[in-house]
Every structure is written in C-alpha cells, then in structure tokens.
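Re: that chain you flagged

S.,

Sorry for the slow reply, it's been a week of failed gels. I finally had a moment to sit down with the sequence you sent. For the record, here it is as I used it:
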Amino acid sequence: MGWVRDVKTMIEDLQRVSPFMRVWGPLLNAPMVLGGLVFIYRFEAVLILVTCVGSVLVAAQIHKRAPFARLSSLVHVVWLPLFPYLVQVLIDRGVADLYSAWLAFVTLTMGICLAFDALNTALYFSSSNNKYEGADR
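Prediction finished late last night. Pasting the structure tokens below so you have them in one place:
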C-alpha cells in the first residue's frame, strides 16, 4: 500500500532531521489515536480519530511532493471546524473524567498546532525561505 509507505517515509524523514519532531510527533498523534480507539463509542472520539488519521495521510502526500515545506502546516486546516466544537464540548462538560481530560489534551495540543501552523503558513507566503530550519542537513 503506497500510502502506508508514504507515511512511514515522512515519519522517518522528520525524525532524521528534527530532534523536536522525534518527541512532538508521537506525543501529538499517539494519544489522539489511542484515545480515539479507547473512546470509539463517543462521537467526538470518532471525529478526532478520523481527523488525526486523515491529517497524517494528507501530510504524507504533501511531504512526498514538497519535503519539509512550510506549506505542510496546512494539513491541520481540517482541525479548524473541529477545534471550536471541542472547546464548546469542554465548556459544557467541564473536565470531570478521563474522557473529558483526553478531550482537553486534544484541544490544547491542536490549539498549539494551529497557532504554529498559522505562523508557518504566513512565513511560507511572505518569505523565500519555505523550508523548515534544519531540513537541509
């Protein structure tokens, strides 16, 4: 399956050039996927799981065509409709159990990603340096 190979290649490339991504990638994606599977019977968990897996698949295709380009930050745009919904769910529920704590983690980490992505997208369109620092090592 080509898409599995593309994801594997992207992960290996990112880990090779970025010590930060060696930590951030698994810390971001593993809890989202595992939590999505644990709470699969919950609507928000299914949305998060599908969005996370979809984001990784799209990221792999962007990386395949333009390795290490800042444009890869656009992959998180699929989270934009989900982010305010998750914030509202947390406001309504509060953080009262393991499920809502997981929702809070997902919402916080995606908020951080979206902030970085906005910066990277702005840098992509406003600069001639469209590669991430250290990507040429």
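What I noticed first: Residues 2-126 form one domain.

Talk soon,
D.
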